Amino acid sequence: MCTRSLKFKLVSVFLIFSFILFYSPNLLVSKTANSGSLIGFIYAEDGTTPVEGAAIRIKNVSSGKIFDSSRSDKAGIVKIEGIDTGLYAMGVVTPEGDFQSDNVLGVRVSENETAKVSISLKRYDKKMETAVKEMIKEQKRTRRALVGRVISYDAKTGMAEVLIVNGFLQREQDIEVKGDTTDFSQDVKVLVAEGTPIKTAFVGETVYLKVARVVKAGDLIYVKGRYLFPFIIGAAVVIAGTVAIAYKFIDLLEVEPEASPFK
User: Fold this and answer.
1) Where are the domains of the chain?
2) Could you tell me which of 116, 99, 145, 150 has the C-alpha nearest to residue 39?
3) Residue 71 in contact with residue 57, Cβ under 8 Å?
4) Closest Cα partner for 99 from 67, 147, 51, 140?
5) Distance between CA atoms of 137 and 74, rounded to whole angstroms?
6) pLDDT of 17-29, one tens digit each?
7) What are the Cα distances from residue 252, in Å, to 89, 155, 163, 199, 221?
8) Quick check: 231 and 98 in contact, CB under 8 A?
9) Is 164 within 8 Å of 175 (Cβ atoms)?
10) Bridge partner residues of 78 (DSSP)
11) Beta partners for 216?
12) Is the pLDDT of residue 112 over 70?
């Protein structure tokens, strides 16, 4: 009789414990030690005029976890709760369209701490907007975008003459150079047109690119960067904050839906 009673009590305790776990699974999950908040200040291109109705979306490069902010108020302020320390791809969506940051956002927060970042939205001109869209379209199919073709190479200077055949080539981009016997990756450090250093070269232009290894005429140059949004009308530029910015293109994301991620 005692044994039967003991079994009944054990079964009852097990059922109660299972009920608690089913309806309150978070009771056994502790908070992330490095989880905090991010407050964003979104401004127009002048860096002082607040943008209302905008939102920040960031994606953790390592885990793929996505965080969405609230919509900005009249002061241009947004907030993201429960953000973890890490590197993030960042974009801003507004009623006029989406803006993508070329840089990786490094966020360092401890529990209950708040990081701050101020962002200025710079609309692309038509030429840049068209070039960006062309590259995104190509990257969706191949995970990289063909941007240029080597015309000639000067072994003394290490400079390659390159014709831009698609989109644009920009300093700090991560590129891949491929040919019959050529296969290497590098960052774009030196880009020259008509003897003058430039930041960006567009389709149809011929420029000189400092390359890390020997290249040959006919070698192809690909851009390996990824974007957070499937279509972009401008750049989201970090102008201040308690976060670290890594100025480098890296292979970040794949673009899947055709619509805005906020829809």
Assistant:
1) 1-30, 35-125+229-246, 145-223
2) 116
3) no
4) 51
5) 35
6) 444 343 344 333 3
7) 7, 33, 26, 22, 19
8) yes
9) no
10) 40
11) none
12) yes
End-to-end CA distance of the chain: 63
Superfamily of domain 35-125+229-246: Immunoglobulins (2.60.40.10)
Residue range 194-221: mean pLDDT, rounded: 94
| pLDDT band, very low/low/confident/very high, at 110 (cuts 50, 70, 90) | confident
State the residue for tokens 């529990």: 111
CATH of 145-223, one of 2.40.30.10, 3.40.710.10, 3.40.50.300, 2.40.50.140: 2.40.30.10
Residue type, 206: T
pLDDT in tens, 122-148: 888 888 878 877 777 777 777 788 999
Instruction: Return d(Cα 59, Cα 65) in angstroms, integer.
Output: 6
Residues whose CB falls within 8 Å of the CB of residue 3, separated by 6 or more in sequence, listed in order: none
